[in-house]
């Protein structure tokens, strides 16, 4: 339950920005590229904190790594709520991302250390489902903040994060494994399964990053307010929370590659369709379905990371630090480059490029799966 509470709080705070993005774009005169930078600051911080989080977790343990991460998240949440300049908001989101990296590395390492391999996908799927519920609450709270004010709303989230940190500090954690130097990580990256799993974390992050910038701005252009934009992303998170445990269970029963193939096919279709609706209600429906398709990859990809780490003897804290390193540039590049590319061309171009990338990855993955025994 504790690991689920950690990821719930973190994703809730991460997703609060989505319905507020048009407001900040208007208040500070941001272009699509500038809005993308604000959205990308958080995953950029995750990237910066990824390797340090693995190093710290391997030396002080997952409990204190989680506590430290949540404390950073709480402090920067309050700063973001009171921020009066775009520079301060960008900085607060960046440091918040560093705290997120520590929280996620600790939470997933804590979880996988106490579960059997043949239940790994299902349990990770349920944990991701809880994280998605956090993402569901995030846009709702962002909508509340747009009406009631950001100061009180973001401060309340900071208090919740501190409460979870206090519980983590009092909870017994699994013993630390033997310390592994960073050189062991470089060696581990030669493993094909691990590299595949990391790419299959980065790709849906690219899709989400692009969607989180372009869809709210487009809905706003079609006359949809912040609260209604929040409703769209709440609905998307709700559907994703339903399908993610199913994807994890499928990965346990039919294999990681089978579940990932379905996720890639659904994502290719979702990204290809997303740029075309020109009516607000239809765009909202397509966004909900596409976002849930993108989320199908998380549980099997995370399980594949744990499987690969176990098979090559890589400490779990390092494995999930690498997961953060894969997610962060995907989310950041999707937000910043997706916004910039859309500004230079149209919204259709980044989505169609990503759809083609999903299709190409599916082709490579299918060939790889046929050349190996079915994974557990």
Shape: globular
Largest sheet: none
The CATH topology corresponds to: Growth Hormone, Chain: A
Order of helices and strands: HHHHHHHHHHHHHHH
Strand tally is 0
The residue-averaged pLDDT reads 86
Task: Please indicate the percent range of residues in DSSP E strands (runs of 2 or more).
Answer: under 5%
CATH superfamily caption = MFS general substrate transporter like domains
Helix content: over 70%
> What structural class do the secondary elements suggest?
mainly alpha
Tally of domains: 1
Under the CATH scheme, which class? Mainly Alpha
How far apart the termini lie comes to 25 Å
Rg: 19 Å
What's the helix count? 15
CATH architecture group name = Up-down Bundle
Kindly describe this structure:
The protein has helices at 2-15, 17-27, 32-60, 62-82, 86-112, 120-148, 150-169, 182-188, 192-221, 226-254, 256-273, 280-294, 298-312, 316-344, 348-370. The two termini are 25 Å apart. The chain contains 15 helices and no strands. It is globular, with a radius of gyration of 19 Å. It has one domain: Growth Hormone, Chain: A (Up-down Bundle), CATH 1.20.1250. The chain is mainly α and 376 residues long. The mean pLDDT is 86.
């Amino acid at each position: 339950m504790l690991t689920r509470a950690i990821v719930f709080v973190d994703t809730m705070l991460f997703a609060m920005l989505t319905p507020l993005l048009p407001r900040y774009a208007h208040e500070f005169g941001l272009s699509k590229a500038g809005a993308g930078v604000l959205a990308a600051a958080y995953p950029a911080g995750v990237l910066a904190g990824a390797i340090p989080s693995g190093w710290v977790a391997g030396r002080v343990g997952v409990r204190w790594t989680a506590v430290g991460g949540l404390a950073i998240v709480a402090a920067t949440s309050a700063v973001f709520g009171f921020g009066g300049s775009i520079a301060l908001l960008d900085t607060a989101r960046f440091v918040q991302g560093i705290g997120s990296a520590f929280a996620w590395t600790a939470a997933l390492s804590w979880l996988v250390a106490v579960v059997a391999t043949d239940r790994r996908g299902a349990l990770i799927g349920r944990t991701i489902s809880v994280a998605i519920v956090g993402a569901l609450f995030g846009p709702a709270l962002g909508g509340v903040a747009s009406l009631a004010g950001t100061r009180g709303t973001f401060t309340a989230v900071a208090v919740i994060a501190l409460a979870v940190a206090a519980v983590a500090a009092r909870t017994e954690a699994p013993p630390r494994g033997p310390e592994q130097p960073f050189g062991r990580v470089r060696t581990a990256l030669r493993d094909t399964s691990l590299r595949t799993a990391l790419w299959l974390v980065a790709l849906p992050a690219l899709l989400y990053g692009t969607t989180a910038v372009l869809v709210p701005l487009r809905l706003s252009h079609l006359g949809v307010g912040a609260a209604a934009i929040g409703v769209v992303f709440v609905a998307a998170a709700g559907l994703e929370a339903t399908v993610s445990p199913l994807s994890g269970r499928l990965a346990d029963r039919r294999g990681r590659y089978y579940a990932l193939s379905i996720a890639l096919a659904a994502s290719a279709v979702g990204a290809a369709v997303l740029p075309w609706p020109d009516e607000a209600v239809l765009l909202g429906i397509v966004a909900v379905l596409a976002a849930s398709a993108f989320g199908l990859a998380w549980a099997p990809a995370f399980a594949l990371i744990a499987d690969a780490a176990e098979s090559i003897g890589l400490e779990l804290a390092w494995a999930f630090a690498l997961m953060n390193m894969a997610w962060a540039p995907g989310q950041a590049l999707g937000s910043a480059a997706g916004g910039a590319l859309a500004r230079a061309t149209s919204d259709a171009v980044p989505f169609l490029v990503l759809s083609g990338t999903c299709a190409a990855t599916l082709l490579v993955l299918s060939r790889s799966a046929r050349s190996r025994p079915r994974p557990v």
